[in-house]
Amino acid sequence: MRSLFLFLGALLFAGTTGSAAEVIRIGTLPGLRFDTSAFSVRPGAEVEVIFSNSDEMLHNFVVVKPGTRAEVVQAAIDLGAGAADRDFVPPSPNVLWASKVVPSGQSFTLKFTAPRILGDYPYVCTFPGHGIIMFGTMTVTTIPRPPVMNPKELPVDPAIAARLAMDHSAHRASNTASVNRFFMPQAGPASIAVVLPGGYSYCWDAGAGRFRYAWKGTLGARPDKTVAKLEGEVYYREESGFPLRVGPDPAAVPKQIDFNGYTVDAQGIPEFELNVDGVTVRERVEIKDGRITRRFRTNGLSVWFFVSPENQERFTATGPKEGAFYKFTGAAAQDFTVTYTPLPN
Amino acid sequence: MPTLLTLFNRLRNGAAMLGLLACLADVVRAQAEAPAGRGARPPESLPTKILEYYDIEDIALPPGTSNVDGVAVMPDGRIVVCFQAGQVYFYNPKTKEWKLFAEGLHWPLGVLPVSNTEVLVMQTPELTLLADRDGDGKAEVFKTVSDYFGMSGNYAEFQTGPVRDAQGNLFYSLGTGSHFGQPLTNEVRGFYSTQGAWGRMTSPVPYRGWIMKVTPDGKTIPWAVGMREANGIGLDPKGRLFSIDNQGDWVASSALYHVEQGKFYGHVPPLVWREDFQGGKQPLDLPVAELDQLRTRAAVVFPYGDMSSSPTQPLWDSTGGKFGPFAGQMFIGEMNYRRIMRVMLEDVDGQVQGAVAPFFDSPKLHLGNVRLAFDPSGSLWVAQTRHQGWTGESGFQRISWKGIVPLEVSAMHVTEDGFELTFTRPVNPVAAANPASYAMRTYFYNYHERYGSQKYDPRDVKITSAVVSADRRKVALHVENLEAWRIYDTKFKGIATEDGHELVNPWVVYNLNHLVKNTPPPRAPIADPKQARRTPGVPKGGVKGVGGPQSFK
After folding, report:
1. What is the pLDDT of residues B225-272, one digit of tens each?
2. Residue in chain B nearest A127 by alpha carbon
3. What are the chain B neighbours of A183 within 8 Å (beta carbons)?
4. How far apart are alpha carbons B466 and B434 in whole angstroms?
5. Which pick of A92, B64, B294, B351 has the fewest CB atoms within 10 Å?
6. Residue ranges of chain A with pLDDT lower than 50?
């Protein structure tokens, strides 16, 4: 009974104080941390959380009911296959509001009406392995206080680090890709062989800055004085050179392509980064049942992907076709996918 | 004979019988073209008294790994190593535990920590920053720091480094390819030069045989030219850059160079990438006398076949005395011998030159001493490899000083008429003052295209007197007819302290370029038979350069 009275009291009180939208900016720091460990909002306020991810890794921003953070984090880990499709947000009644997964350098605005019930509402990144340490507290209160910022330096807690390491190794062991830099047949000498979970592999060439070919199978021996051996048949080869154009004119072949390296995610899958005539381009490749899905993230305004005539039938993309190119402009240029589907056997 | 010795060693070290044929193949390959030269085998190291003063400990490698190709010490005291197969591990010397940091790299041959979670690795295609950003102990970020150089896929195109100076500049070196190899596919990275492809060790793509600099803002600058297979670079305490090179074509005997911007160090094919050679000029066509004028000579020469056949990384003793009486001096590894050497440098007439002596000669030391690092306790960590069929052994060892000062030559200076030796302990003045306690020989090496060089004009040097200082730590050797541009090899007999410490390594070799004053110009090279050159091989269908440096000044 007592709590009901409190609840009603809070409701009434809140009704009198709810006002214009409150804008909260949350960033990220290296080492699985939000830059803000606590902030407060008024009950019933219209809240706009602008979540910007400056970290190298993928993160989301999920607000949960008081006291349910651990449960939600575990539910996200248990999602298994398909987790990425739902941005690692579990279908739990304890999840109040959630952003999409925000890649490095991007942001997401999450709008909601603050609870009318006073209390501490955790926010957390539910990307597998992150939620154990990557969280903060949103306090619903009538007496707003300034946000609490995390120190830029990483606090070292050996116990947490050990738990995290265990968590990650368990996660990685299940189903991970491997990146292998070596001399590869029919590619430039600065090649990279990526063996994906699911029995497919591909060759990506850091010298040419592009995808070269895919095969069903894994990587074989890497001898001392010659190219690596492929264990399996190449079924798709991109023979038409560098596929992207990054300006308004698709006829303008890029002049300068610089390889900047790669980042691997929790599945061990790399995302390669290039600088193409001043435009940052990231490419991540997944292969399922032979279908090659290449996700590009760029900061270009207008990006084109060339498909050679003999392969036109086999490609699909998230943008419109213009001649031999797929065209991605505006927001679509920032994140698009191009998919090759092999002919059925 | 060397082949048999190698096989014997491999078998003795537990190589399986099944591996016998593979071993044989390796030996043949190593002799064909190791960076070290011809993979010549040393006589088995004679036991010296070094183990009375230093301990050596074997460190077990993590399961499934072999061939340690790089070692460095992290700010928190952990040891970081890289393996030929592409892994990077941390070793905690306190708990003796290994932890995997990264894998999948291409033949890394050097590591350099940036912080406790970031490590630079010099791998075949590039210099890469590996970073653990999520705190799980493993790297997720593999950021390309410098790849502004060509690759042909030739197996001998090794790379070494990086080292970092006080201003944050990084330096690394790029080895040349062998004429026994060729581009592996129809594509190379960087512009393909048909001129550069000629020679015994070649530079068909940009900057093979160069030392590169990376500025703190990330710009890569070709820094110095004319290396053959510079399997070791280092910075001295004054910030001066040094590089070794390995005996072969244009390199009479393995040597140590003081590297300065824009200078040429003698190996000719890499000159194709120098501004004044671009546009189709073939540097191999220049008269040898002209090339000789262009080159900067070595500070120290490691006489091939006796002192060293394949020197590796130079490392200065930064332990402040924790590693014995050699603070500020250089140690340098050896691939093909069970030996670590010590180098004593001095500035003479505005140039760096000096002497080399054996330091750690012991059957307990492995072969393949490719990389060195000092930890905060003053122990020397030695990374050992046979890399891709080089002469060498896989292993990891730690050398620590026992605290007793050995009797050694701690300095050697050229004087107006000889050399002044400084010893680590007062010596018995009777033996030290006797000229017969010193056997000195002198000779020189020739500069030519042919592989290596014989010792020219070898002769004994007459020591007219040996004068011992009042504190008995110094001996001035006065010699007859001291000549510039020659090597002086001195062996000691009977030098000891009065309380029974014998000279541990009674041998020192000084490379006398400059006299104290009035140094004559170097002699002209002796004419040598013209060498037949192999026509460079390219794969069927030709070769084209894709990516990498394509345009030049």
Report:
1. 999 999 999 999 999 999 999 999 999 999 999 999 999 999 999 999
2. B134
3. 106, 153, 184-185
4. 6
5. B64
6. 1-18, 155-174
